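We modelled the chain as a single entity of 301 amino acids. Its sequence is:
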Amino acid sequence: MPDSHGRVIKPKHLLLPLISPIIAIILISLLIRIGETQVPAGPPFQSVNTTGAGLYNVAVIILIMVAATYVIYRLIKRGSIRAFEALKNVLLTIVVVSSTLFYVTTYVYGYEVTPLMKYPTLQLVITVIISALILYAAIKAKSAVVRALAIGAYSSMAGVIFTIALPAWTLALLLVALPLYDIVMVYKGLLGRLAIELSKYGEGKYPILRGLMLDMEGVGIGVGDLVLYATLTSLTMLEYVNYGFSIMEALLASLISLLGVLIGLYVTFKYILPVKKYAPALPVPILLGSIPLLYLVAILL
């Protein structure tokens, strides 16, 4: 959800959110190269690739998102900032450490990094060091670019894990459902109310959400949006490879998807954001970024 309070939209407001989908393209490329493109989703999700399972999985994801947003809203509305920050830091730590561990171990064994394969404990040490650096940069760094790199890192890791863990039907439905959910929640639901509550904190509001939102001098975009951008670009590359296209053709499709996200962000910031000073960041970027996937579907029919 982009949020702005009278600030001029600068190029970095459009480019920094692209760090997440760019890293996602790199991560999925490395996974494709070693053939690690499927992992079991595990509970509470269903792994079967059917419409019914997809609808169930999307419903679970939306329910989790609503619950998390409600908790954030209630804590901030009550002024329980310390409790919120403690909860935020714990959850971010769990996400970053578990995601980093997955990629470290997958790449070590997939690319047969012999020294690290012999010492699993060293893999854990590397995971902890990388995770600590990412968390510190995302929450404490003063530079918007450094924060964007850190937030983009774990947003992309999560987005690619969604891509390889969730069935294709679930991902397709997710790319439709979450932009619609975003519109409702921003203009009629908790996200809009949350933006209003945060406005009471003036210029100091973004440090409260730092780590959950990429804040760029008065303009912010949520991590959930960045995760879906990463899911879209990595899914585009993976699906093109799965249907027989070369890795270069798949990369080109992903870059076109990335360009669609960029144009969508521009449209959102330029024309939609000024209406209420906050706007849903998913509908236009996801719609334009999905063009390569829609083209793939069209030629396969």
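As a brief sanity check on the tokenised model: The chain is about 75% helix and 5% strand. The chain has one domain: 3-300.
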